[in-house]
User: What shape does this take?
Amino acid sequence: MNQPKDKLIAALDVDSQDEAMAAVKKMDGALTWVKVGARLFSAAGPKVVTLLKQEGLKVFLDLKFHDIPATVASACKNAACTGADMINVHALGGRAMMAEGAAAARKAAMAAGYPPPMVIAVTVLTSMGPEDLTLLGISQTPNELAVHLADEAKAAGLDGVVASPLEVEVIKSAMGSGFLVVTPGIRPVWASLDDQKRVMTPAEAIKQGADYLVVGRPIFAAADPKAAALRTLEEMAEE
Ligand code: C5P
Assistant: This one.
């Protein structure tokens, strides 16, 4: 877990299985982890996870489940049966939903002969700033809400959270270093912000103590995605 390569999760935000597999083949072994999110999964289905695993990759299945506990438990069971190494739910779905989802995923993975996936909870989306929370009627700052939701996720028995790199330090100090923090909203100095608001560079995020960095467009929207991944890995090592 100490190599930058083992901490970088490249978000395969494409629209088909063919595009996903072509993108991965071009990376030529530069990646350990990829992320399959709602965009790819809703086009390609669970088979793409199997194919990525067959390429020797670890897969974060980022479907951010948020529903009643029974539905999320069934969805987490199915997600774990794909062999995904990491899955997630929304912390705002509540403690019972998170606990039932995690329990179902762990049980299903064991029954299918897979190691239990890491089950993590999304705290506050990195595309949301304080003004977006105000519009939702939430008076806490993103930072306060993220710590509160991380606490709920820990109480529900989850392995960690997805949070902005700006919140890593405060979450780690409140929850302990063993509680995973996975951070999207990573922007190397040379990349555009896109729709992300609460961002940090790869080196800064590693310095804050992030366990995994999720990077999408700076890698796969680059003219040379492999070079962009290698450059990101170099920046992570700069810490
Ligand atoms: O392209 P970019 O690096 O912004 O991609 C970030 C990825 O992480 C996207 O797939 C997005 O869905 C995901 N994500 C996020 N913020 C969260 C959780 C996941 O940006 N809080």
The chain is about 45% helix and 15% strand. The two ends are 15 Å apart (CA to CA).
